[in-house]
Amino acid sequence: MTSDFPAGNYRFIPAVFQYSGGVAANPDYEIERVRFDKWVPLAEGFAQIAKYIQAAGRPLTSFCACELRSPAAFTDEGFRNFNLHYVKTLAEWGVYDGNTNPVARSNVCPEIDPPAEPSFYAFSFTRLSQGATPSFVIAGSGESQEGNASYAERTVRYRDVSPEGIAEKVRYVAGVMERRMDEFGFGWKDATDVQTYTIHDFHHVFADALVRRGAARSGLTWHFARPPVIDLEYEMDCRRVMREVVI
Q1: What domain of life does the native source organism fall in (predicted)?
Q2: What number is the average pLDDT over the span 196-200?
């Protein structure tokens, strides 16, 4: 089920304290995605994002999604500590209330030439719509199943990077994307962009697990990067956004 975040003019899929499962703009609003031409370190990125959103005449609570790049994959504990730091600014903006975080997020680790510190790649916010078409952003998900167990206990085909292991991971993650889109009443036919993050070859499963189910309707953007937690191997996110800019 989705929840409403009236201060941001969007709905979201409740998940964990560090991010939601996805967001969709309310009627009369749309999501704008802004990508930085060069990665911007976290603190500076938040400052630039605040300036951009306010210049657009929108409150900071309209911040609804972001895409991060980190130097390397975290341990379970390291990932939690990073997230506790990350949500401090969201709390200051009135987005995070200490329990519920409506902001969707992807956070991955480039395998080659990574940033020296966690940085912003892109962000999204809501604004008054110039058209009737809906928009959404689905948060990134790797092959870890939801729950309170450790990543090792809930990861699909844990530490298995064989062709069969990768294939099962891809199918699982594509299914997560479908379930999250369905929460808002959408599917692959609605997505305008799909991104995947892995350093492993998944060509052997690309046609059957992704193309045939419609996930590559608009192509597929492959980032040669790892998911943010050690021993996760495959991640995806997707969106329907009509307004995208690079700054």
Answers
A1: Bacteria
A2: 98
Q: Please name the residues in contact with 136: beta carbons below 8 A apart, sequence gap of 6 or more.
A: 22, 23, 24, 25, 31, 181, 184, 186, 190, 239, 240
pLDDT at position 109 is 96
Would the pLDDT of 79 be above 90? no
Secondary structure of residue 247 in the 3-state scheme: coil
Q: Can you read off the two tokens belonging to residue 132?
A: 């009737």
- At residue 73, what is the residue type? A
Question: Could you tell me how far CA 97 lies from the centroid of its own chain?
Answer: 20
Query: What does the pLDDT read at residue 148?
Result: 67
SS3 178: helix
- Return the bridge partners of 174, or none: none
Picking from 185, 181, 172, 107, the residue whose alpha carbon sits closest to that of residue 146 is 172
C-beta of residue 35 within 8 angstroms of C-beta of residue 137: no
Report the C-alpha gap between 140 and 201 in whole angstroms. Answer: 19
Strands 235-240 and 136-141, bridge-based pairing = antiparallel
Q: Show the tokens assigned to 99.
A: 């329990």
Q: Which architecture, in CATH terms, is 3-246?
A: 2-Layer Sandwich (3.30)
From residue 67, alpha-carbon distances to 31, 45, 160, 214 in Å are 14, 11, 27, 23
Query: Measured on CA atoms in the order 40, 42, 44, 48, is the torsion positive or negative?
Result: positive
For range 18-45, the mean pLDDT: 96
Span 17-30, mean pLDDT? 95
